[in-house]
Amino acid sequence: MKSVTLPLSKQDVSELKAGDSVLISGTIMTARDCAHKRIIELLDNKKELPFKLKDAVIYYAGPCPAKPGFASGSCGPTTSARMDSFAPRLLDCGLGAIIGKGEMSQAVREAIVKNKAVYFAAIGGAGALYADAIISNKCIAFDDLLSEAIYKLEVKNFPAVVAYDCYGGSIY
Fold first, then answer.
1. Which residue from 2, 3, 42, 13 is spatially nearest to 150, judged by alpha carbons?
2. What pTM was computed for the model?
3. Beta strand segments in the chain, E
4. Spatial CA neighbour of 56 closest among 162, 151, 127, 159
């Protein structure tokens, strides 16, 4: 297992290969379909985003409410292909990495290579495991979307696999 500390430098990304198992530590943002739609609308209207895209990591997930004494409830990945229409533009704007579940389109793979980014696959059905890796959780935008709002998570030893590397390699 490789330890990965966020934010990732281009050098860090260049050392990751499809199939590598990693433990991710640092700041990640959650965003699902509705949040992505709003981010694109903000970009289209040249308005300020709720977080900087440059080198950010977006986790395609929506955390469940936390039980007392915990930072987060279950927080498993959603199907990444649902964000295929948004991901290339966000990668072109500097997004450094994506965490999600399953394959993404050829356009996303090409944008990952073009922008020297990385796509990490998380395990579907392991939301409780991922909740254990979340050490803080705060809603930072679009709170009206509830679980689809954007949450800023601090994670420690969040397990994932490099699904697409910056060279075009794929586990799929």
1. 42
2. 0.96
3. 2-5, 21-30, 57-59, 97-100, 118-121, 134-141, 150-164
4. 151
Count of alpha carbons within 13 Å of 168, Cβ hemisphere only? 4
Active site residues: 36
d(CA 114, CA 91): 9
Q: What are phi and psi of 48, to 5 degrees?
A: -70, 140
Q: For the chain, 172 residues long, give each residue's pLDDT as a single digit of tens.
A: 999 999 999 999 999 999 999 999 999 999 999 999 999 999 999 999 999 999 999 999 999 999 999 999 999 999 999 999 999 999 999 999 999 999 999 999 999 999 999 999 999 888 999 999 999 999 999 999 998 999 999 999 999 999 999 999 999 9
Whole-number Å distance between alpha carbons of 22 and 158: 8
Q: Whole-angstrom distance between the N-terminal and C-terminal Cα of the chain?
A: 20
Judged by DSSP in three states, 18 sits in: coil
Q: Which two tokens stand for residue 118?
A: 């990385």
